[in-house]
Amino acid sequence: MDSILVEINRALSSEEAGAVLKAILILLAGVFFAWLLRSRLARGRLNEGHIALLRPLISYIVIGVTVLWALRELGLNMSVLLGAAGILTVALGFASQTSASNIISGFFLMAERPFSIGDYITVDGNTGEVLSIDLLSVKIRTYSNQLVRIPNETMLKSNVTNITRFPIRRLDMKLGVAYREDIENVREICYEVAHKNPMCLEEPKPFFFFKGFGDSALEFTFAPWTVKENYWEFATQMHIEIKRAFDNAGIEIPFPHRTLYTGSVTKPFPVQIMSADKTDTNSAQD
Amino acid sequence: MTTGRIPETGWIGSFKVAHGITRGFRIGPMTLWIQRLENEWRIAHESGTDAMDESLDLDNIKTPEQSILESKNAVRFSFADDSEEITFSARLADRPVVTRSEYSLNVPAHEEVAAYVSTPLWMGISAGRKTKLLLEMPIFRPSDTFFGPSTLEGELCYASQAFYRLKFENQPLLPHRAVTAVLVKNKSEKALSLDLIKLPAPNLSLYRIGENMFLTQDVVYTRTEEDGFASLQIREKPGVNAGDEGGKARAVLVSEPREKVSGNIVTRAFSSLFK
Question: What are phi and psi of A7, to 5 degrees?
Answer without folding.
Answer: -60, -45
